Amino acid sequence: MFDIVKGQAFVDSYGRASRANDPEALASHYAEPYTSFTLGHVGGFSSKDEALGRMVPWMARFKEFGLDDIRIADSTLEPVSGHFCLCHLTIEIRPRDGTAPFHFLNIYGLRQDELGQRFEFAISDNEIAALTQRYPDFMKI
What we know:
Elements: H1 4-19, H2 23-27, E1 30-38, E2 41-45, H3 48-64, E3 70-79, E4 84-93, E5 102-113, E6 116-123, H4 125-134
Parallel strand pairs: 1-6
Antiparallel strand pairs: 1-2, 3-4, 4-5, 5-6
């Protein structure tokens, strides 16, 4: 049976890594491979090294835009099997320029088994929509 307490502790750990803007700690939460679904785009990475390689510039972009105060404002865990849970994470970003915080909901798929816990996927449509609505140049390289 899926252990909700253990799952919540994992989500809380992910929240601490997000708040600390720690790419290495964030990457340690992802499965190998990990898949992301965003506004019709499928991405992801196959290894922790690849995850870290993508997380470093991604977190730098948040810092560059003054959006590096990232918190998990709320979470709901919904077990769907004995080893898998959907995690509804409401993320709050507090812009450093003093504008009002904003929130979005991402969904993560959390696997829990003899290998430990790891996010296998995320659906982050709301994240990118919220970021680009407020910061139109956020996704430009």
